[in-house]
Amino acid sequence: MTPISAVIITFNEEKNIGRCLASIQGIVDEIIIIDSFSTDNTKEICLKYNVRFIEQSWLGYSESKNYGNSLALNPWILSLDADEELSAKLSESILEKKYEGFIGNYSFNRLTNYCGKWIKYGGWYPDSKIRIFNRDTTKWIGKIHETLKFNDSSSTTHLLGDCLHYSYYTVREHLNQTVKFSTTTAKMLHENGKKSNLIKRYISPSFKFIKDYFIKLGFLHGRTGFIICIISAYATYLKYKTLNELN
Fold it and tell me: Which helix (H) or strand (E) is 227 found in, with range?
């Protein structure tokens, strides 16, 4: 059996963190919380569980996760976001591999709940993520939508079961996050010398909506699917509009 540590970063996650922590009880051998000085009840909820609660000024998504990984007692890491939880089937799959002994990396599908509705179309599912890895050969990179960089050629095994992701409770939350992430992405593109033009600003958002709503069947979710696809298209427009202003 291979021991494994869970690493979770938090900031004002009182709506989510209890559900996340409950889902990994009996699965992991250690839970590390890297909290950016939450002002709600996140800390109180976390301390009800057997966690190492570490308060740390915000380092960025990747660096906060890497910092948490460096503090883990075990090299094997289960990385979860505070708004995620393991389904019963995924928990079973992880335990099976844990008792066999972890080898390489492990991915699983993520199923997102949007304003109370599970979203399987519009490009939102299966949304496969690698979330179990050896921290000695792996690190997080990127300012937003962080990804894993591997220092070896380890294979990736896909596990059965879903990671349940509770993304947005309101459309307003989605819009606010869209503005934040689109602006940050535009700044990153600008720093890398990328340019915007009329095609990217107007044609790309239209194509994004057509692809997600029609080709990827977002319309099957009715009004919710339409809202999601419209906001995704708007994110593309805002990204290139901001990049044009920066240029």
Answer: helix 222-246
The whole-angstrom separation of Cα 84 and Cα 90 is 12
pTM of the model: 0.95
Low-confidence ranges of the chain (pLDDT < 70): none
Residue 223 burial class via C-beta count within 10 angstroms: exposed 0-12, middle 13-18, buried 19 and up: exposed
Range 41-48 contact pairs with CB under 8 angstroms and sequence separation of 24 or more:
41/14, 42/10, 42/11, 42/12, 42/13, 42/14, 42/17, 42/82, 45/14, 45/17, 45/18, 45/21, 46/10, 46/17, 46/21, 48/18
Dist CA 243 CA 192 (whole Å): 11
What dotted CATH number matches 5-168? 3.90.550.10
3-class DSSP assignment, residue 12: coil
How far is the CA of 33 from the CAs of 73, 135, 218, in angstroms? 13, 16, 35
Instruction: Indicate the domain borders of the chain.
Output: 5-168, 171-246
**What are the CA-CA distances from residue 108 to residues 79, 85, 89, 135 (Å)?**
12, 12, 11, 18
